[in-house]
Prior knowledge:
Blueprint: H1 3-9, H2 23-33, E1 45-50, H3 53-73, H4 78-89, E2 98-105, H5 117-141, E3 145-146, H6 158-165, E4 171-180, H7 195-198
Antiparallel strand pairs: 1-2, 2-4, 3-4
Helix pairs in contact: 1-5, 2-5, 3-4
Amino acid sequence: MELNEAINLRTSVRYFMEEPVSDGEIRALIEAAIRAPTASGLENWLFVVFKSDEAREKIYELIGEGMEEYYRAVNLPEEKIKKLRGRIFEGGMFRAPAYIAVFINRDVRFLKGKEFDDVEFLWSAESAALAIENLMLKAVELGLGTVYIGVTNFRGIEEKVRELAGLGEEWALVGVIPVGRPRGEVKPRKRKKSVDEVLRFV
Ligand SMILES: Cc1cc2nc3c(=O)[nH]c(=O)nc-3n(C[C@H](O)[C@H](O)[C@H](O)COP(=O)(O)O)c2cc1C
């Protein structure tokens, strides 16, 4: 597949078929992920795959919990929240055969001074986000769908994801990526802004 095709076909997929994703496919995604640039060459990322029924159920519930918190935070009316809850818990939105949780290790640092705490964290998170985009583009090539889940970073939820992954507090969650074969039509979303609106030459 041409890179341009993968870039233009990638879109957030939130409904998946039950058909499993093979370990070989997961490996191919992570091989693509770790080709991303990584600040100071640190590679302080970790990709934890939730594939067992038990772990998947827990992560799916945590995503549902986070989404509900998000809908409340953006002041959606209760009626609408109820409908969206139904889409998640009855419609199976976000229910996937595999979830990849991407973590970074805060203790693995290149610049050690306190004054670099923020920038080191930002660089690590940015590196992991670039890895996630590589993974998402590779998924398109393999006929798989993905969506970036950020709500699992909400307080009280991130800790549970870390616990489920069996990791210590030095590991910060960057995102959770449900992966599976898309259920229904995949239609890339239009952008609200044109190139002319977001491009400036100086
Ligand atoms: C950092 C980040 C966090 C996101 N968190 C969520 C999320 O928690 N739940 C969700 O359904 N989509 C989430 N998304 C997906 C965006 O909603 C989506 O990318 C955006 O609406 C554009 O649509 P597209 O990906 O189909 O082009 C997130 C995307 C990014 C980059």
